[in-house]
Design brief:
The chain is an alpha+beta fold. Helix content is 27%, strand content 23%. The strands form four sheets. A five-stranded antiparallel β-sheet has the order 1-2-5-4-13. GO terms for molecular function: 4 iron, 4 sulfur cluster binding; heme binding; metal ion binding; precorrin-3B synthase activity.
Length: 440
């Protein structure tokens, strides 16, 4: 069990953490960083109890596979202590900010993984928390470790990414700076040198970056990738990557039942509506994990969750019970594909009530029989989606949005299509677009 570190050890930041409650319109926000997105059923019940007892009951799955409790009142210390007692905290107070390591939700169980990333991830997380120098990293500085799984979010940009591949019969880790595994890799290292590479990159970043250069992209505006690679090669043996490109897997593998590497078992994926759970829902999922799985849950970058190691014969019953709890388990349902930020009900920067508008849009799309992937953002910060969605609605006023379509040639949300649409107008336009032969 962790003892609660002194709050004086926390540095100022606008990012919530487990030990740093950040105020919002709907109360305080506590962010619980999960190792590899994984949480035990007992820990899930502790989160449900804390949200129910000390907050509004709103629990959010984030796009970095973490959890947030919203609406926290005056009993912040009691809430933090209850979560620390469930072993959900960092080793040290300063170590909480830097636990930004994302894995595939299918780590260790995905049928197409090249290696099980969990042991290396544990080594990296321990180093991030125990090496004091790394506590100077920004709370947004993030690392991705990709084991080659089919179930992988490859569109989120990271300050450093590592991706498994095979070259001449040897497993290696391709890596890149300030981007995604689908980019051209900067180089590669042997699998056994993965931890050393992460340490070398982070140490070099901290040596070169000025205080205002908090992200790798800021440093690359001043130093070329080639210049950084020359310095890294002095610390870790590396090679060029020839004729390899990371290919994305199927887009719906986080929803429904899918076979694991071990025969006879599946994982079952479910989407809480708009990424939000209540305590009863989270307790119900924890119960299912105990009864049918291995007593663990995995949260995903799609703001959804998985129950791993479910007997294939029990998959249909687990799905039925998840749906009874209010979760979506079918990819062809609009609420399985809609993402929305907190909106004006909880955020001072939100220009529209995005959650309510998203529910209205889902209802309209359901009637039309369409299931596009849509992101509703209350402001330009795009807190709910780290990647560019196929369709983005950017709020401009209550109930009104600018409509963007993803375009590889356009930065940000993509190509602006129409300004100042109501939700009804958005649904009608998407309906017309879905019927157009140009989009078939």
């Amino acid at each position: 069990m962790n003892e609660r570190p002194l709050s004086a050890a926390l540095r100022p930041s606008a990012c919530p953490g487990l030990l740093r409650i950040v105020p919002a319109l709907d109360g305080g926000i506590c962010r619980i960083k999960l190792n590899g997105g994984s949480i035990s059923s007992l820990q899930a019940e502790a989160v449900a109890a804390a949200a129910e007892r000390f907050a509004s009951g709103a629990i959010e799955a984030t796009n970095r596979a973490n959890l947030q409790i919203r609406g926290i009142g005056n009993e912040q210390t009691a809430l933090i202590d209850s979560l620390l007692a469930a072993d959900l905290g960092p080793r040290t107070a300063a170590g909480d900010d830097v636990r930004n390591l994302m894995l595939s939700p299918g780590a260790g169980i995905d049928r197409h993984r090249l290696f099980d990333t969990r042991a290396l991830a544990g080594q990296i997380l321990a180093t991030l928390q125990s090496h004091e120098v790394f506590h100077d990293l920004s709370a947004k500085f993030a690392v991705l470790l990709d084991g080659g799984e089919d179930l992988a979010m490859l569109e989120h940009p990271h300050d450093l990414w590592l991706s498994a591949f095979e070259q001449d019969g040897e497993q290696r880790l391709a890596f890149g700076l300030a981007g995604c595994p689908t980019d051209n890799p900067a180089g590669s290292v042997a699998l056994d040198d993965g931890h050393a590479l992460v340490v070398a990159v982070l140490e070099l970043f901290l040596e070169l970056a000025r205080p205002e250069q908090t992200r790798m992209r800021h440093l690359l505006a001043e130093y070329s990738v080639e210049a950084l690679l020359l310095r890294l090669a002095e610390r870790v043996p590396m090679q060029a990557v020839v004729d390899w490109q990371r290919v994305s897997g199927a887009s719906d593998l986080h929803i429904g039942a899918h076979p694991q590497a071990e025969s006879g078992v599946v994982y079952v994926g479910a989407v809480p509506p708009l990424g939000r759970l209540d305590p009863a829902m989270l307790r119900g999922v924890a119960r299912l994990a105990r009864e049918f799985g291995d007593s663990s849950l995995r949260f995903t970058p799609w703001q959804s969750l998985l129950l791993p190691n479910v007997g294939a014969e029990n998959a249909a019953e687990v799905i039925r019970q998840l749906q009874c709890l209010g979760l979506q388990c079918e990819a062809d349902q609009p609420l399985s594909r809609l993402v929305a930020c907190t909106g004006s009900n909880g955020c001072a920067k939100g220009l529209a009530e995005t959650k309510g508008d998203a529910l209205q849009l889902a209802s309209l799309l359901q009637r039309q029989g369409h299931t596009p992937s849509v992101h509703l953002s209350g402001c330009a910060r795009s807190c709910a989606a780290a990647h560019t969605a196929p369709v983005t609605l950017l709020a401009v006023a209550p109930g009104h949005y600018d409509l963007y379509f993803r375009d590889a040639a356009q930065p940000g949300f993509g190509a602006l299509h129409v300004r100042n649409l109501t939700i009804e107008a958005v649904a009608a336009l998407l309906d017309v677009r879905s019927r157009s032969p140009l989009d078939a």
